[in-house]
Design brief:
There is one protein chain. The protein is globular, with a radius of gyration of 21 Å. The C terminus is likely disordered. The strands form six sheets. It has a nine-stranded mixed beta sheet with strand order 1-17-16-9-8-6-7-5-4, sandwiched between helices. A two-stranded antiparallel ribbon has the order 2-3. A two-stranded antiparallel sheet has the order 10-11. About 20% of the residues lie in helices and about 25% in strands. By secondary structure, the chain is α/β, with parallel strands linked by helices. It starts with a strand and ends in a 14-residue tail after the last helix.
């Protein structure tokens, strides 16, 4: 099934003050808001001044001696009350496990971001607030993990899957995986090769291997597609575009249809790194009797960095893999609408395929 989400009309948006934030005039415009510490709230100061300042004017409110008419601070918390944050250093596994409040078991989810590396905990922390035992899994450029994609091996993801499956706080019956960009590529391969994976949310990830061959036990098990360097575009200031530089045949796509996992593809039509058409092609390659296992949702006007709701849109920023700016694409309003819809779909999808509603909560003690 394919769904296309329409762009929202202009109007009042209760969260508009948050998702519409942008760097100050005169400051670098290639900034991305990243929450490094999910245990601390993001504090937003809102000040009202007399008069009017357009976004393109100098920051009069910041430099004028005039006092604001009123000021308030909003604390945006990532961790829901009672959610536990546990740093994980098990074997080769590096990441953070977030557990919902209450005793008993919870449906398990592995969450991954892209090849920029590090351990981004925001989405996993939010998932725990919705009842999931969520592992934010780092896989590159974090602590003692490989610094380069070519040194990442698939064994690592198999180890993480096996570990989370056996965790005493994780409910039996299978795991979910959420991944964006390169993390989505990993998620799709996990659906094929890790039988514990029952549901995958794939966000703007090319459904084929890019840049370098993927290794498993030191041997190539997934070859990279050919990259046509001449089709890599670079725009002044905004940076590199790679969406059309890969030479693809049907044989290059990950054969996700060989898995019985349910797949939700969330793809953005203004993504300048991963072409949405590839997700549609993969869906079309599914045999008829398995077509019900994959859904593709397309968002016009949205870009590559589809993050949790009300995160300010980042059109371009520096990327350590490209060693320069990368153009992610997207238009702020359409991107905000996409992020809200995608988050709701992600939660509903994971609950649908990982939670047995007939027994959900029967082994859990809810917080008072």
């Amino acid at each position: 099934m394919t769904a296309m989400i329409k762009k929202a009309d202009k109007g009042v948006d209760p969260a508009g003050l948050f998702w519409s934030m942008r760097p100050l005039p005169g400051h670098p415009q290639d900034a991305r808001l990243v929450i490094r510490d999910v245990t601390k709230p993001l504090v937003v100061t809102i000040a009202v001044f007399s008069g009017h300042v357009t976004p393109d004017d100098d920051t009069v409110a910041m430099t004028s001696p005039a006092k604001p008419l009123c000021v308030t601070r909003v604390h945006r918390r990532i961790l829901a009350p009672g959610v536990k944050r546990i740093e994980i250093r098990e074997g080769r596994i590096r990441g953070t496990l977030f557990l919902p409040p209450g005793r008993g078991t919870h449906p398990g989810v592995i969450d991954m971001f892209g090849a920029a590396g590090g351990n981004m905990e925001t989405r996993a922390a939010l998932l725990a607030g919705h009842g999931f035992a969520a592992l934010s899994l780092a896989f590159i450029a974090f602590e003692d993990l490989p610094k380069r994609m070519m040194d990442v091996q698939f064994d690592y993801f198999e180890e993480a899957t096996a570990w989370l499956t056996k965790h005493p706080a994780v409910r039996a019956g299978g795991l979910g995986v959420v991944g964006v960009s390169s993390g989505a590529c990993n998620a799709m391969l996990m659906a094929i090769h890790c039988p514990q994976v029952k549901a995958v949310v794939e966000i703007n990830g090319p459904p084929f291997q890019i840049v370098n061959d993927f290794l498993r036990q030191g041997k190539v098990f997934q070859r990279a597609v050919v990259t046509d360097i001449n089709k890599v575009e670079e725009r002044q200031k905004e940076g590199f575009i790679t969406r059309d530089c890969y030479v693809i045949t049907d044989e290059d796509y990950f054969p996700i249809w060989k898995s019985d996992a349910h797949i939700l593809c969330l793809v953005c039509q203004d993504d300048q790194q991963a072409a949405w058409e590839h997700a549609v092609r993969v869906r079309d390659l599914y045999p008829q009797h398995k077509g019900h296992l994959i859904d593709v949702v397309m968002y016009p006007g949205a870009g590559h960095l589809l993050e949790p709701p009300y995160t300010p849109h980042c059109r371009y920023c520096y990327n350590p893999v490209a060693m320069g700016n990368v153009l992610w694409g997207g238009e702020p309003k359409a991107h905000a609408v996409a992020q809200l819809d995608a988050w709701k779909r992600t939660i509903d999808f994971l609950h649908a395929w990982l939670v047995d509603t007939s027994s959900s909560g029967s082994d859990m003690e809810q917080p008072q």
